[in-house]
From TrEMBL:
<feature type="transmembrane region" description="Helical">
    <location>
        <begin position="324"/>
        <end position="345"/>
    </location>
</feature>
<keyword id="KW-1133">Transmembrane helix</keyword>
<feature type="region of interest" description="Disordered">
    <location>
        <begin position="264"/>
        <end position="283"/>
    </location>
</feature>
<keyword id="KW-0472">Membrane</keyword>
<protein>
    <submittedName>
        <fullName>Beta-glucosidase</fullName>
    </submittedName>
</protein>
<feature type="transmembrane region" description="Helical">
    <location>
        <begin position="576"/>
        <end position="600"/>
    </location>
</feature>
<feature type="transmembrane region" description="Helical">
    <location>
        <begin position="504"/>
        <end position="526"/>
    </location>
</feature>
<feature type="transmembrane region" description="Helical">
    <location>
        <begin position="365"/>
        <end position="383"/>
    </location>
</feature>
<feature type="transmembrane region" description="Helical">
    <location>
        <begin position="154"/>
        <end position="182"/>
    </location>
</feature>
<keyword id="KW-0812">Transmembrane</keyword>
């Protein structure tokens, strides 16, 4: 019997119980590893690192058998052509050329090519259609230059480059925000969908034939303009929405000027009251404007009465039609996205065994959550831009644009910063004022009306609907006191409320949209050799868990923001949201970057398996 066969037989009899102590077992393990390093051939080492790709294995094996690496080392590793390699090794240059080209391309392969071009770039087009309340914009002072100076001409191209960089940063930052916080944003959007559906269902019932036109108009206005911010930043729960100047201006779309009176001498069934070109006492209108002359009774206490405007239907239709076309906003990016999937699948069929293609496909399915978010946001009835609304109601004599949430928070910091003789307080105040003067973060749209971001649209529309309900109930109570018949539907608040069943449908509906991309991506990464749980599949799983946690925190934050007064809970919720949000950004954006630059291909992720326990059921992390 040869010595090798004798060693093999002896090793076959060794088990875990063959050692008197743990040190003997570890000593044998070290000896076996040292022996393994001595007997392994270069091909064995190459196969260990490249076994998941048969094409790579075949190319490297061909070059090893031809003696390319040995001859190249003998020549001092200097650059050689294919013909020179063929002359040194005596191999056929037709055989060496494709093998050398493939191996050399392994070092130059851009792992970001597939995911970046096929999936991430189309997602940029998707995210531009998602409603937002802020943007990063180049300050106006960058393009200012003294007139008559030639230096401004030479600095123009530099300023243009700076503006281009700022635009790219703005777009990519919003893309990262949409990807990292997709769960709460979809939850808010679906909440708005369900609320719009309840309103339309309520208005389509039979008894709405007795509904006052102004109530119908206000409900429709809440649908098409419910994304306008009416609650000031830093409000308290006792804030009366009816006192908001924004609310008073927006409702001008569906009603005429308010006339103070206790009772109006007007027939509500008559849609054409007496008109005159002269305004009544105390009411001033533009020259030539027709107003309804209403006689107010002389009473001690007066009530504000709102009159339905006959032009409200056309104005509401204008607001609805101002929304961008669904096909133009979403259709074209979907074609590019589907095209990327098709190309990747065809490429995978021609490159069987290439796990890079499989992982690129997995990350493309992972980013599919951005198209889900864009499709939902583009199907909303409320327009993303408030420009049409501003043109319909005007600025109310206040032409100044709103300051935006970023500047309001900075001013709050300046206000709360203590004044003192110490240099720290002065430097802090100067720093905050300097950041404010940069004017980098601005409202998404110019004008006095401010739109809310997607994750606030659902709760913000709830405020609009609640205000309409409060107005309707107050009118019903006043009508019951005066004996004037009003709308015969006193259950408006009950019909538009969200019950437990509605909340469950909302949560599980969004959960499906969040789970599908992560589940498909995780399953693809799991089944890509070697099969099991590893860096990439853990990335998808952690992202899914983070989104579910963020959705729960969104519900808690919404309750605290619009309901509870507990400041301690608000502080705790904000801190938890900040921590979870930072972790989610690292998981989503950091995980994608690590896939693109090839971090997941390093030696740590090349570990075949890492047992976490001694039992046979222990979890093993395997390289994907």
């Amino acid at each position: 019997m040869s010595p090798v066969n004798e060693i093999i037989l002896r090793l076959g009899d060794i088990g875990v119980g063959s050692f008197d102590s743990e040190s003997e077992r570890l000593q044998l393990c070290d000896a076996l590893l040292a022996t393994l390093q001595k007997v392994r051939s270069p091909w064995d080492i190459a196969c260990t690192h490249n076994w998941v790709n048969p094409t790579t294995n075949a190319a490297i094996k061909t070059l090893i058998d031809a003696g390319i690496f040995k001859k190249w080392t003998e020549q001092g590793n200097k650059p050689l052509s294919t013909a020179e390699f063929a002359e040194l090794t005596g191999a056929d240059p037709v055989l060496l050329a494709p093998a050398l080209s493939f191996v050399l391309a392994l070092e130059r392969r851009l792992h970001l090519r597939g995911p970046l071009v096929q999936f991430i770039l189309p997602c940029v087009a998707f995210c531009l259609s998602i409603p937002r309340g802020w943007k990063i914009e180049a300050p106006e002072w960058i393009f200012r230059s003294p007139p008559g100076e030639t230096s401004g001409f030479f600095l123009y191209y530099f300023k243009l480059l700076v503006a281009l960089v700022i635009v790219c940063v703005d777009t990519m930052s919003w893309l990262c925000v949409c990807f990292a916080f997709a769960g709460p944003m979809m939850l808010s959007a679906i909440y708005e969908y369900m609320l719009d559906g309840k309103i339309l269902k309520y208005m389509s019932w039979d008894y709405t034939g007795h509904m006052l036109p102004l109530l119908r108009a206000r409900l429709l206005l809440a649908i098409v303009a419910g994304n306008i911010l009416v609650m000031p930043d830093g409000h308290d729960q006792d804030f009366d929405l009816a006192r908001s100047q924004v609310w008073k201006d927006v409702v001008k779309v569906v009603q005429r000027a308010a006339i103070p009176s206790n009772d109006l001498n007007i027939n509500r069934q008559d849609s054409h009251p007496e008109e005159t070109t002269q305004p009544p006492n105390g009411v001033f209108t533009a020259e030539g404007e027709s107003v309804v002359e209403l006689r107010a009774m002389e009473v001690e206490t007066q009530h504000t009465e709102y009159i339905y405007d006959e032009n409200a239907p056309s104005r509401l239709r204008t607001l609805l039609n101002s929304q961008a076309s669904f096909g133009a906003a979403v259709g074209a990016p979907i074609i590019f996205f589907v095209g990327g999937f098709t190309y990747n699948i065809l490429e995978a069929q021609s490159r069987e065994g290439d796990n890079d293609t499989a992982h690129a496909l997995a990350y493309g399915m992972w980013w599919m959550i951005i198209p889900h978010l864009a499709i939902i946001s583009c199907a909303m009835l409320a327009a993303n831009s408030p420009s049409i609304l501003h043109s319909l109601v005007g600025d109310g004599g206040r032409a100044e644009a709103h300051t935006g949430p970023w500047r309001r928070r900075l001013r709050k910091v300046v206000k709360c910063t203590p004044r003192g003789t110490g240099s720290f307080q002065d430097r802090l105040r100067n720093l905050v004022k300097g950041v404010e003067d940069l004017e980098l973060i601005k409202p998404a749209y110019d004008g006095r009306f401010e739109t809310v971001s997607l994750w606030r649209r659902g709760p913000n529309k709830r405020l609009w609907v609640n205000e309409v309900i409060d107005w309707h109930e107050s009118e019903a109570r006043r009508a019951s006191q005066t004996g004037v018949p009003r709308d015969g539907s006193p259950t408006l608040r009950k019909l538009l409320e969200f019950g437990v069943e509605d909340r469950l449908w909302l949560f599980f509906g969004v959960l499906v949209l969040v789970i599908v991309p992560s589940a498909l991506a995780g399953a693809t990464s799991w089944n890509t050799p070697r099969t099991g749980l590893s860096c990439r599949s853990l990335n998808h799983l952690a992202y899914l868990c983070a989104q579910i946690l963020q959705m729960a925190l969104w519900g808690w934050d919404t309750h605290l923001h619009y309901g509870s007064r507990d400041k301690l809970q608000k502080s705790v919720c904000w801190m938890v949201q900040f921590v979870v949000g930072a972790i989610t950004v690292f998981i989503s954006i950091g995980g994608t970057l690590m896939q693109i630059i090839g971090v997941y291909r390093n030696c740590l992720c090349s570990v075949s398996r890492l047992p976490l326990c001694e039992t046979s059921e222990c979890l093993q992390l395997t390289h994907m």
